[in-house]
Hints:
Strands 2, 3, 6, 7, 8, 9 and 10 form a seven-stranded antiparallel beta sheet that branches. The chain has a two-stranded antiparallel sheet with strand order 1-4. Strands 5-11 form a two-stranded antiparallel ribbon. It has a single domain, classed as Jelly Rolls. It is globular. The protein is mainly β. Helices cover 11% and strands 35% of the residues.
Amino acid sequence: MSKFALAAALAGAGLACSASAISAQDKGQDADQVVVSQSEVEGTTPPADYFTGKVYLYMLTKPTAPGQAGTALVTFTPGARTNWHSHPAGQTFYVTQGCGWTQAEGQAPQRVCAGDMAYVKPGVRHWHGATANEAMSHIAITESLNGKNVEWQEPVTDAQFTGPAN
C-alpha cells in the first residue's frame, strides 16, 4: 500500500496515528546504508495549532549532522492547509498525489498537482494545502538554520483559502 493510500485510508476512517516516527537515522546510526520498510514509518497528526483540517505527517528523515535537511510526507485531506509560516532556510516540496494550493504572501495562489515541485525562498511567508474537494500529498524538504526549520504564524482564513477556484 502506498503512503498516500495509507494516509487516505486513515483519513477516510477518521483515525490518527500518534506513535513516534522512525527514520533511517534512528534505525542504524552506524550503518553505511539503512533501508526503512514502509511498515516502519508511522504517521502522526501534527499539532492543530499549525494546521486547519485533518493532516497526516510521516517523518521520513531528521536533520542529522553534518546535514541540515529533514524530509516528511504530508497528506492534507480536502480543505486542510497549513497556517501561514516561513522557513529560515527555505523549503522545497514535491507533490506526490492530488492537487492543492500554495501561496506566498502578496502573490496569487498557485495550483500544484502531482508531479509539480515548489520552492519557497528563506523567510517568505506562505501556506500550502489541499483544495476544498481533493486531498493532496507532498514530500517536504526543509533545512534547519541554527536548529530551527519553521516559524509558525496565524491560520489561513476561510476567505483566503476559498479565494482560489477550488
